[in-house]
Structure formats: structure tokens, C-alpha cells
Predict the 3D structure of the following.
Amino acid sequence: MSGLARWLGSGAESCSRSNALVLDPLVARRSWRAWWIAITIAFLWTVTFGVTIALVLSIGIGELGNNTTVVWGFPIANYVWWIGIGNAGTLISAMLLITRQHWRASINRSAEAMTLMAVSIAGLFPIIHLGRPLYFLWLLPYPNEMGIWPQWRSALIWDFWAILSYLLFSIIFWYTGLIPDLAVVRDAARTRFGRLFYGSLCFGWRNSARHWRIHQRFYYTMAGLAVPLVCSVHSIVGLDFAASLMPGWEEGIFPPYFVVGAMFSGFAMVAVLIAGLRWGFGFAPIITEKHFDMIGRMMLLASLVLGLTYLTEWFTAWYSGDYAERRFTIYEMVGRYAPEYWLMICCNVIFPQAFWWRAVRQNIPVSLVIAVLVNVGMWLERILIVWTTLSHSYSPTMWTAFLSTAVDWAMLGGSLGFFAFLYLCFVRIVPAATMFEVRELVHERRQELKA
Amino acid sequence: MPSLSRRDALHLLASSVAATMASCTQPTNEIIPYVNMPERLIPGEPLKFATSVALAGYGRGTIGITYEGRPTKLEGNPLHPASLGGSDVFMEADILDLYDPARSRAPRGPSMVNSWDEFLQAFEAARAHAVGNGGFRLRVLSGRITSPTFVRLWQALARGFPAARWHRYEPVDDDSETQGLKLAFSRPMLARPRISDANVVLCLGADPLGPGPEQPALARAFSTRRNSEKPGGMLRLYACESAWTLTGANADHRLVLAPAAICDFALAVAARLGADDGSSPSLAFKKEVEAVSDDLLAHRGHAMVLAGRTQPPELHALAAWMNARLGAPIDYIEPVDTVPGTHAGSLAALEHDLESGAVDALVIIGANPAYDRGVEFSHMIGRARLSAHMGLYADETARACRWHLPMSHILESWSDIRGPDGTASIVQPLIMPLYDSRTPEALLALVTGNRSPRDYDLVRQTWNRGGNGDFESWWRGAVERGVIEGTGAKPVTVSAPSLPQVKPAGPGRLVVTTGPDPSIWDGRYANNAWLQECPKPFTMEVWGNAIEVSPEDAKEFGIADSKYARLTCGLAVVDAPVRIRSGQAKGVVAVTLGYGRVAAGPIGDGVGFNAWPLWARRNEPVSLSPIDSGPATHTTFGHAVLDEADDKLFPRFTLAELAKLRRPITRPESSEPTLLHTPQPDDGYAWAMVIDNGLCIGCNACVVSCMAENNVPVVGPDEIDRHRDMHWLRVDTYQSGEAAGLRIGFEPVPCMHCEDAPCEPVCPVEASIHDTEGLNVQVYNRCIGTRFCESNCPYKVRRFNWFDYAGYQAYADMNAGTISAQRNPDVTVRARGVMEKCTYCVQRITRARRGAEREKRMIRDGEVVTACQAACPTGAISFGNRDDKHSHVVAQKSRGQHFALLASLGTRPRTTYLAHVSNPNPVWDKTS
């Protein structure tokens, strides 16, 4: 199989068949047993998430494991991790759109949905982590009688705006891509409610050539805007750490390193999600082994860049000659968090090397396992950035370790459950793949065959 | 109590307290608002009153700061010889005891709640019964009481009841010293070393800088001779000790010796000083003995030898003999304490009387023998026909007695008291008694028949006898100054002491040494949360005590750090956690007293283990074996082993090295060139602090003082275990060197108030900002709790309210009404979720500014004294205006050993340090 054919399997030969494939879960009567089981579990975890948040808000963030020295903990790591995952959706979608990578067609919708959900969840964590969360709005430059504005030199303010603009942008971008498909759902809907519901969502889309022209121009422009934004959001998250004075944080490499890390974990999460779609919705014809092959290659690239970054960190620590930096790096490797550190190196750098082999890349279960490990590794990376530096900075008398609590872990698990819950709702309501782009792909393949 | 946890019990107790407190009623009598303001009283402006507080019965002059009749803070009284302006942890924490909601509030007797009248009836009945049987055998047991009024009233009582006896028993006694001096001089005597006149001091297990009634005065004297700039040279301190003491940590040379070896060492030094007893110095320390003896002899007239509290009497006598040989600057005075005999002997006599049933009435005042002497004493109390306990708390002894009578806190009392040097002072109350309590003097007056004694009159009667001429103006002056001039004991001339026969102690494989706890003394402060949470020097342990053993012994007995061990000493068996201490003598087990209380109150009950059974067996052989674990120990931050490469955190110099320094290690930040924006003071003030590491003895007075002044909450052991202590000021303890050369240095770390503060630009809401005078201020109202400031603080001096620590919390006594009365009204009580930190006591700066602006002048140098600075007995902390070229703080900053912590980070801290300077014996260095 060469050319465009490798992106489509049997069962997606025609436009109507590919449409039917995507639409079927939304309109046809079929068994939803697995979905119900999944969403029940996800719901229970969502409740856990709510309970832990309620606990922290009502009793105090002392319920978490943070202490006087390690003042940041799980919420910050969770936040950076979720933002990273949120990064990849728009990145995949926009960058691949601009570079005309046709294989994005069947995965970009779920990747973008992933972005929205992940960024929304990520946005919760900095608020939960506040000592006085009810005043988070003081980060906004709202007019007040005291004439007080936020502190523009603080990376947290940059961060706040980066997340907010990224979230708003991602919603618009995702919705723009959704409009033609919502029209298809409207047309295929079997109930009056379905027709009204999807009809109002698709803004009167009539599939006219003019509509398509405007849509595509807007969509490509948005994609052009998306790429710098994707880079900015996570490099600014990197600046949260880099714009400080602490050993292990004050590193110029952090912004690009964070962007690559985000792409890495995002691709890994996409791999997990589309494997689920392929299995649950029978999307095998439009999500092929070749898709996993491509994602595997991206993850391999990202893991090499990350490996280089770790080497650079070690080198600069040695080369700087700075006592605190060197002491920090040694602590990283042999200190209190050494097991987590080396597990992280394995997950992020060693295990993905298996993707050098095509057989591994195209083996979906194996890819899935590596993708999950990469996500574990990336979470460890974020928590270690927080823990290691804070535990072991300039004042040796204040060195201490972080002691996590059940609430910490329940909140992390709860956020995953909440994500799964949102994602399961999404696939139940919205076409999980971009139908018009799949149709385009089917059409272009036909052209290719003719030629 | 397996079913009810400690926290539950506290919750219950506090809610019952809260329920009773909540029932506010109108006062029964007419209340009158301030239509005409009382003279001197300006709302919001504190008033200061001189009074005294007690430790081990000795008075220490203090200045009470009160707001609208509510005392909030105690500071040392510069006029009082036992304070000289400094304080210690106990003086600082006494104010919390005053407001302790666990204090007893009403007399208790046979029907649980009784009245004073009912007690007096019972007392009269006992007297009437006894008088018929040939004399009323009343026994009064108290701790050391030095009050002249008490003594006067006692004498009156003794005239009425000839069979009455007063027994005096201070749990941490000075029997060894008094017996030793009696051996030397054949009469009871107290030694008063004039450290400020000494050039060389040798401590044989003595801990003059350690906790005790005289700590502030002795530390002040020590500091006057540790200034590297003063002519006359620095004092040189040698310490021989078995376990770490503050004196050992501050010594120029520290020798780690088991108790028996200290005796040998003393004999060897004495032999070189001319005691011809034929014994030769043990070979192991020959060179050290020679170095010390030569140094002592070279400074004849300015050299002294001090023996420790737990050393045998013969060693004290030997020290007295050596001091006589050296012409040491030591005064000898008659005992301040008027009860003759030893503490142990006095108590033994009472125990004998109780055993033989020869006691009609036993009245225990302020003492707690049922705790420190053990359950046996409780049983003996039952042998008396009438037993009554008077104390601040219904403690272990109160439970064993038929009657309990609430005692007024000293800050509620009119009384008088003598300091360790005999200086008397009038104790004036800072507040009306909070409860239905009385003073010990009033109790004596009551039982002698004065049915409505007024403390005020009792004290005045004592002092209005000598025909002082104009008594009223004399009285006014005495009360105002807090000291009665000329009442200090006069040094007596003593005969040449005889050389005692010291028999070298038999070598035991493992002996135990005990001493009062640096945080809660003998247990009387067990219910004081500030002190429970005050990190002990060196180990940083809080909320408990531990068995301390040397690494060699731990290895030999198979005991691991923080694990449990069983200590057996004769019949006494103690199970406790172990702490391994480098720098402790092999073969010595050290424990501190005061823990393991069962009736201290909700804060102090069940904390630590009771080591009192070991006190009487100190220096006796013990055995040690590991056992299964028990409850965890609790440790705060602050201890670090100093990395060789990181010695910039705690630089050390000898006097010789210091002389070679051409300019300060770190130049004052104002003279450093910078491209950064620096705040330009627009009103002529730039506040700065200099802390002299060489003078910091590690006593923690500043830590507790800061808590009292700035409403710093306690968090309790659970939160300490999660590393969430709230102290704004910590005393970092740096350990360097190995084995015999092991050294410990203290470095108090408040906020650095950096000119280029890393915490400021990272706060998204500008809650951490700089003011025009260079203070790095934290706006609590604006803080949303991102904690980025603490993340980015290289010194880690910021503290976060993870929970509502100041509010409804067990270890803050559930914020009971009395506890909130202690709060400084000039300082915000911080809410949950905000960051806080040292403010340089900005409220004191503001107060000084108000005064200066009223008089249209600048704030004078020395007018602003921060709480830590005021507390420091050695004057290690100086604070002032850096832009005033003549200020003390500028002079300090231009000294050679001046350095900034982590100066290379470019934070330009306003708090800077003077490096530790020691004065080692050059000969010693050659020997080792």
C-alpha cells in the first residue's frame, strides 16, 4: 500500500460508507453496554475528583502533601501535565493541516476534543492549588476601587493569559472544524429533537461551495495562528519555573523543552484515545496501523529531543561550575527521588526507542503500552521538576522531602476519571472523526487510483 | 485511653471550654465607659510595666507590655541583674501560661467544686483536731521560694504553729554545688562567677550558657567578652562535657569525656595547679591538661573553673579550691534561699514524717512531687490528715491531694521575689486575676487567720518596716524600676578552701546523665505550646524527648536512630525513642527531664517520656536494649551538616585569621555597585539587621519572642511531621568536622529583606512588595496563596498557613478566649491560605515613627528594637537605619567578618551576618 491508500482500510471505500462509519454510533440503534460500563467507572472517579476538590476547598490545601519547603506539589505537576496533553491536540490538528498531512483527517477531531478537555481540567488545578482560591480573579486586571493591577512581572500572570487565550482559541478552532459535520448529523438525524439540536449547532450550514470556501480559508488561517500559540502556551508554562532563581529551574532550555515534552505526552495520549475509538467504534477502516506508525515516529523524535535535553541539563550543570547546580544534579540522580528519576528516564527516553522498529510502531497493543508509559514518564517529569528543586535548593537546613497524601493521589486519579467522563460524553454526542476530511481523503484516494 | 484519641479529647475539652466562655453576661456591678480617659492611657499605645517572673524560684526582672490592661509580651528588664535586658525561652513563654485555658479556675475539694471558705473550714477542723493532740503538725512543701513576704508570713505562721515545718524541694536541685561548697568552706555558700572579668574559663560539665534561671545574665556576661574588637581580648572557653550543651557548642575547645573522665581531667588539672595528690594525669589527655592548666595559670586572677550541676560535690569543692589557687573572679554569697539544708534532704525529711503518720496537714505550694518523685509520693500524700495542693494547674499532685487551690499566675500577683544574686524586686500584677485564685502569700495569711488578705498590703507591710523615710516614693520607685537597689547579696570573704579528697568515679560501661529540658525545664512548662514547639538546640526535636546515645554505643547495642530502646537503671525502666548524637561521649546516655506528664493539660499530656526516675540515678550504670517501635519523634527544620564546599553558609574564623582580613567578606550592600533598580529611601530610613553568629549561643529566646510578638501560631506534632512549622525565625544549626573536631554553629535566619528580592516579581497579585524603607512586606489581605514567593526564596524563610492554624485548632487551644487575649493587637492574625514571614517587627518601627513624628525628629538609632533583638541575651542581633552613618548597624556592617548569606545570588539582603570568630589556644592546636 502506498500513497493515500494506507490511511484507509476496507470499509471506507466510498464517501457514504465512511460517513456511515462515523455517524453510526450517533444515530443508529446499537448496544452501548461497554460505553455504559466505562462511563460508570469514569463517573465514580469524577465524583472522587469532586470530593477531593471539596475537601481541599473547605478544610484547606493542607490536605495535600505540600510542606514549607516543597510548597508546590501534585496540583502544579498535574496542571503542567494536563496542559501538555492539551497542547498536542491543537498542535497535531493545526500543524498537520498546514503541512497537508492527510492522515490527520480521522484523528484530529478527537485530538482537538482531548485538548479542550485537558486544558479545562488543567485550568482547574492552579485554582485548586491556591491558598485562597476564591480570590483567583485577582489575577485579572479588572477595574477596582483600589486601583490595583496584577503583577505583570510574574510568570503566573503570563501563564494565566496563555492558558486563557489558548483555551478560547482551541474552542473556536475545534468548533470551526465541527460545523460541516454537525450538518451531516442534522441531515442524518432520525428524531425531531436530533434535527433541531444539531441544526442549531451547525449555524445553518448548507454545504454550498461558498460556505466551503469561507470555511476552509478561516480554518487554515486559524491553523496558522494555532502553531505559535501552541508553542507559546507551553513555553510560558516552562517560564513558570525558568523565570526563577532556583537550581534546576533557572534554565534557558526550559521553554523549548516543555513544548517538546508537551507534544510527546500529547501524542502518547492521542495514541491511547484513538486505540479506544478503533476498538470501541470499529473505526479500523479509518484509523489504521499506519496512523500508529506515524504517531510512533513522532514519539520517537520527541523522546530523542527529550534525551538530548536531559544530557544538556547534566552538561550545563557540570559546565557552569555552579556548586548549587551540581549539587542539585547529583541529588536528582542519587537522592531521595532517584527511583522516580530513573523510572522517568526509562519511560521517556529508553522505552520509546522500541519505535525504531516498524513492527513495534504498527503493533497497536505494544504502541499502546509504550504510550501509557510515556504518559507516566511525563507525569513523573513534571512532579520531579517541582519536587527535586524545592526539596534541595540553597538552604541545606531546609532540605526535606515531599510526603504525598491519599488526597493527592485521589485528585490525580479523579482528574483522569473526569477526563474519561468528558471524552465518553463527547463520543456519544459529537462525530468522533472529521467526516468531511475523511470524505476528502476517500475522494482524493479515488483520484489517485484513477491516475 | 484506647477508644478516645488525644485529638478527640482536645476537641471535647475545647468545646466545653468554648461553651462556658460563650455565656457572656452583663457585669453585675455598674460599668463605666471612658468618659474621662485614665491618665497615661492612649488607646492603641502599649504601656510597659516592670515586674518579675520566676524560674526555679528565682526572680528574673521583666518588662510587661500591655494593651488596654491586657499583657501581651514580656521582655527582659535591663535594670534587673538576672536579666540585663535579655530573656530566655521561659520568660518569653510565661505570658502564654498566664492565658492558658487549662489553668485551674476554682478550688476543688471533696465535692469537686468548692470554695476557699470550705477549704478554710476544713483546715480549721484539722487544726482544731490536732491542737488537742499536742501541736498542729502542718507541713508546707514548696519549690524554691525566695519571696521576702512569704518568708515573713511563714515566720508569723510558725510562731502560731510551733510544730509546723516548711520543706523546700526544687526538682532540678543545686545540692551538688551547695554541698561541694560546704565541703570547701565548711559553710553553705553560693558561687557567683563574674564571667565578664574572666579571660579563661574551664567548664567541667558546667553549662553556664544553657537553660536556667541565670542564663540571660551569664550569656550577657559571656557576650561582653566575646567581642573580637574590644580591647582586653576575647575570653577563651574550654568545655569538658559528656553530652552536647550550649556551652560546649560555644566553647573554643570542647573535650568529650564521660563523667568519670571529667573527674580524672579535673584531678589532673588540679595536680598541675599544685594539688599534690600524687595522681598522674591520664595519658589520653596529657597534652590537653597541660594546655588548659598553663592557660589558666597564665591568666591568674582572670581564670576560673566551673563545675556542673550533675557533677559530684567533691568536684565542686575541687573547683572551689582551684579557683582559690587561680584567684578566680568568683563571688561567694550566702544562699538566697532561706530554707537550710539540701533539697533532697528536705524532701526526705517530709517523706519520713508522712510515712510515720506525723503530719496533720500537708500543703503543697507550686510543687509537683507526684510527678517528679513518682507515684510513691502520691501514696504518701494520703497519709496526711488534710492534704492540699496549690498550683496553676490541677496537676498530678493535685489529683493525689484532697484539696486543690488555684494559684494566681505571677503576672496576676502582688508579690516580691529575689533573683539568683539575692536582688529583690517587687512583683506587680499586669492584669487582675483571671480566675478565683490566690497567691501563696495570701494563702499563708489566710491560714494564719487573716480572713481577707490583700496581696498588695502584705507586700507593702514587708517593705514598710525598715523606716525607709518617705515610703510612698520609695515604693513607687521600686515598683517602677522593678528592682530594689542594694538588696543584692554582698560577697562574703571566705576562708581558703580545703582540698577535698576526690575519689575517681568507678568506671561503668554505660552511665546516664540527665538534666532539665531546654524547652520545658523540669516539666512545669509542659502545657505551654510555644515551648513544646520550640526546637531543642542541636536536635531540633519538638513535642517530646529522646534517649541520646553516641554512634559507637548505638552500634554496640544494636540501636537505630528514631527507633525505640529500653533503658534500665536499677528499678527504673524507661522505653523511649533513641537519637544518635555525634559528639557525645561513648558510654554516656543523655536524657532530658520534664516529659511524660499525665495531668499537665490538653497540650502537655502524654508528650514524650518521663525521665525523672533517672534523675536520682544520674551517673549510675544503665543498660540499653532495642525494643519494638513506639510513637514517632518529631523534628523541625534547621539542622544541616555543612558541606566543605558550601562553607560560605557558615564561615568561621579564628582571631588570628580575622586579623588578616583586609576588608569585609561581603561589603555592605549599599556600597556594592549595581545596575539593578534599588529602592531609594525617600524619608531617610533604610532598615537593616546584622546578626553576629559568634555571639549567638543557640538559646532560642528569639524564636519564642517572635512567636509572642507576631502572633505566630503553633501547628502541633502532626503538622511538624509534615514539615509545616510556622516559626518566622529559625536558628539554623550547622555541623562541621568529624569526631573529636566536631563543631556546631548557630545562625538565626529571619527574612533577609533582600533589596532585589526573588519573592517579589513572582507574586502575581503583588502581595509581596517592597516599601520605600527597604522592607520586603507581605500584604496578607492581597495574598491568594500561590506560594511562588516561597518557591523562589533561596533562604526559605516564608511560612504558609496550610490550615487555619491560628483559629480552631487543637494545639492552639481551639483559639479559646484567653488565648486570643494574648495576641498582639498591632499584628494581624493570619487566615488560612496566606503566606507570612518576618516583617522586621514593622509594628515597632511604626510605633517609633509615630513618636518621632510627634516630636518632629528622625527615629533615633536604637529606638526601634525588634522582638528577636530585645530577647537576645547576648546582643547578637543589631537593627537600625543603614542610611544613618553613625548607627550601630553600619558599624557592624563594616567589620571584617561581615558577610551576606548566599551573596552570590545577587539578592542584596538587608539582613547580614558577622561570621563566627573563635579564640582557640594556639598550643592546643599543636597538640591535636
About this structure: DSSP finds 15 helices and no strands in chain A. Residues 235 and 255 of chain A are 4 Å apart (CA to CA). The two ends of chain A are 15 Å apart (CA to CA).
